[in-house]
Write a structure and sequence with these properties.
It contains 12 helices and no strands. With 219 residues, it is mostly helical. Helix 3 packs across helix 4 and helix 8 packs across helix 9.
């Protein structure tokens, strides 16, 4: 699929300062790749919290609890912290985080899966499937988000802002209310084509589109 001139012009609207922030964020994710497993686990919990919530809320909870809060705090304490930030489903999310602790060595597992493929992008896709199947609370979007945040920027993070953007640009006619794995991969392939034509990876392109829809660079 060829991207339109309108799409290119929209990307060019991202101001230099925002583009600089995006580059810094991508370099930060590269550093996370080499960080200890508990840092990865913190990002895993962050992505569990992003489901059905705003990114800002999940960031606030992550900052409040800290890595040790995710790894060591009691479920009730985690639930209170989540509730204090007006996050929905605080008890459910706290339960997911407690259950996710069986994957506290998440870095080792993900690196092993990715290394099993010759191509790192294919390895990341395989790792995403494992995450969706094995970590309660993660769907395709959240698993892709996690992998980007730990230094593997090859997968699309299809949140509502990105879906609205590609619809506005005529890249899709309609956005389905619920997105199956098959539909997710189809939408991701459209953005992969855009990546090939712009010279960006999925992580960079996502940040550009997200900024154009929200005016912010988060994570």
């Amino acid at each position: 699929m060829r991207i339109t001139e309108s799409f290119k012009r929209e990307l060019e609207k991202v101001p230099p300062e925002a583009a600089r922030q995006i580059r810094l964020r991508m370099r930060e994710f590269e550093r996370v790749r080499n960080s200890p497993s508990d840092r990865w686990f913190s990002e895993l919990c962050f992505c569990i919290l992003t489901a059905n919530s705003k990114a800002e809320t999940a960031i606030s909870i992550q900052n409040s609890l800290g890595t040790r809060g995710f790894t060591d705090s009691a479920q009730e304490e985690i639930a209170r912290a989540i509730k204090s930030h007006k996050h929905r489903f605080h008890n459910v999310k706290a339960g997911y985080i407690i259950e996710a602790r069986k994957h506290r060595d998440i870095k080792s597992r993900i690196m092993q899966i990715i290394a099993s493929e010759r191509d790192e992008m294919e390895g990341a896709k395989k790792a995403r499937d494992w995450l969706v199947e094995n970590v309660k609370g993660l769907g395709m979007k959240e698993a892709s988000h996690f992998l980007r945040n730990v230094g593997f920027p090859y997968l699309a993070v299809l949140d509502r802002h990105i879906l609205r953007f590609i619809k506005q640009q005529g890249m899709v006619k309609e956005v389905p209310k619920t997105i199956s794995r098959k539909e997710y991969l189809k939408l991701e392939s459209i953005l992969e084509s855009a990546c090939n034509q712009t010279g960006m990876n999925q992580g960079e392109l996502d940040f550009y589109m997200w900024f154009l829809m929200t005016g912010r660079v988060l994570k």
